[in-house]
Each structure stands twice: as C-alpha cells, then as structure tokens.
Specification:
The protein is mainly beta and 124 residues long. It has strands at residues 2-6, 9-12, 17-24, 32-38, 45-50, 57-59, 67-72, 77-82, 91-98, 113-114, 118-123. Strands 2, 4, 5, 6, 9, 10 and 11 form a seven-stranded mixed beta sheet that branches. Strands 1-3-8-7 form a four-stranded antiparallel beta sheet, with no helix packed on it. A hairpin with a 6-residue loop joins strand 4 (32-38) and strand 5 (45-50). It is globular, with a radius of gyration of 13 Å. The relative contact order is 0.32.
Length: 124
Amino acid sequence: VQLQASGGGLVQTGGSLRLSCTASGFTLADYAIAWFRQVPGKQREGVSCISSADGSTRYAASVKGRFAISRDTAKNTMYLQMNSLKPEDTAVYYCAADTARLCILDSGSWYNFWGQGTQVTVSS
C-alpha cells in the first residue's frame, strides 16, 4: 500500500495549486481519503476528506469555499484543488487513507496509510 503525493510549490497570494496523490496496492475508492497539512511546531490539521460510503466530503472551516477535494477512480488518484491561496495555507500537505467507510478530520490518528508530504508555500 503506497500513496504518492505531488503538486506542491511556491505560489503568490490569491493563486492556485492542485495537489495529487496516487495510490498503489489498493483501490482508493474503497477507502476514506483525506488531506492534512502541518506547519513546523504546530499540530497536524485535517483539511478535507471524502467518505467511501457515500462520497460525502468535509472541509475545515479555514478552507471551505476555497479548496475542493476529488478523486479519479480510473486513475486511482485523489486531488486537492486549492484556490485563493493565503500565506496561512503555507504548510506541508499530506494525503492519507483508511479502510474506514466514513472520513473524519481529526489530527490524523484515524488514518493508517500516509503519503509523503509535499510543500506548499504561499508568498504575500
């Protein structure tokens, strides 16, 4: 089971980025999937997730209306489209998955499978 994240980078305030996370060894659609982010010295924060049971999504209040999570079952890949980026969105972003049917946005302990982080930096 492996998750491979990509798509981070440096962007100006107000810009957009799309993160990708490709799964191998399992079918992403059968898992609850999520994106997290972490700033050094701070607790990991759940950003968004999709439940495998019904495809419902959840968003942290700080990103609602600006970020969109999605998945492509044919490519076994999940995405995080990030628009109207702010300097406070700067963090290392991680994708995660779990066999649970429902997703939650916790500190990350709910999820058993993790991708490597990808750095997102938003300049002011």
